[in-house]
Sequence to fold (416 residues):
Amino acid sequence: MVIRAFSALLIAALGCSLAMAEPQWNKPYPELTEALRLKGDRARGEDAFVICQGCHRVGALGRADGSYPRLAGQHASVLIKQIADVRSGRRSNPKMLPFADHQAISVQEIADIAAYLTTLPVPPDNGRGRGNELGRGERLYVMDCASCHGPRGEGDPQRYYPRVSGQHYRYLVREGILIRDGARKNANPDMVKAIRQYSDEDVAAVSDYISRLPVDLPR
Amino acid sequence: MSAMMSLLRTLVGIPLSLSICAFAADAQETVKTVCAACHGVDGNSTDPRYPKLAGMDQEYLMRQLKAFAAGKRREETMSAIVAGIDPNDFSKLAGYYGKMKPTPGKVNDPGLAAKGKLLYDDGNTESGVPSCAGCHQPDGQGNARFPRLAGQHQAYVLKQLADYKSGRRATDPLMTTVGKRLTVDEASALAEYIAGL
Fold:
């Protein structure tokens, strides 16, 4: 009787944990592992980046209208994961896909591009918000974002957490909303949970705060 | 007598066919007899259907000749002509035209060219058309990987964009994407701007 109750409990617990199991946003897969393992070469990366700069612009500074993010100064691990995720369909991005797929760049070039981009300077001229909700933005950031993205928005290369400082406000808003709504498939479920209750105004406020963080990374 | 004539013909024929071989191996001669009718001796074609080749990168031109030979680029006349050229001559032909000085193109509609400039420099963020300048460079000079566009004939540029879109030209998957994303009006504006570069 006790055993039966225990096994019922076990099955229930198992079922529960299965149901709760989120898609593994950072589970390694062969191409990602390979791209992370390869040594990137800056000079080759600069050459390979040519096909990206039609959108991400020279210097990888992106666009203030949020259409294309700034990539300059991003952690190499983050860039590699996002490129690999886009081309494997883990992150849906139909606009970028043809420029990131196997016909366009090799796995080695993913590593090279990341090695190049991570060294590029991040000038403090990124697009910003209206600046009218910065107190609210700061409170939300400190409460929900700083533990992963860092107090200065520096991110964490070991855990694929992007640096967010220096990013364009409009891009932060767009991706924030996509992540909140579960539309960015490769998002960390912890982040989805953290901002699930955010209104559009909350996303805008915290994005505005982020867009004003200092662009120099703590060393 | 008839046997004698036949021998004579053969003897005369040997040096003649040898000299044809020697001519064929000479790239300049191939240019004159084969290429120039459409592309001009100096690589600046006057018929807007045929591309100017002057000043284009040798490696790029060679890749195109190989693409025609392999059927990755299809054009009834050109495919047939390339089939008749010795692939060993590709490099010399490409080098010949690459060294020629390109002549400027002619803008017929400055208003249209101005629209083309916006697209050339900035792309279309809505449809995901990248700026052309990213690969072909702001002045359209191109390099080994991406062809020179500056001063190219409008009609030729339009035809290439349409061929990328339709898949008739399959030399570059990125340009296939670009061709598919461009509207007809955008393509016209770009061709007009490129002519003036």
In short: Residues 2-25 of chain B form the longest helix (24 residues). The CA atoms of residues 152 and 195 of chain B lie 5 Å apart.
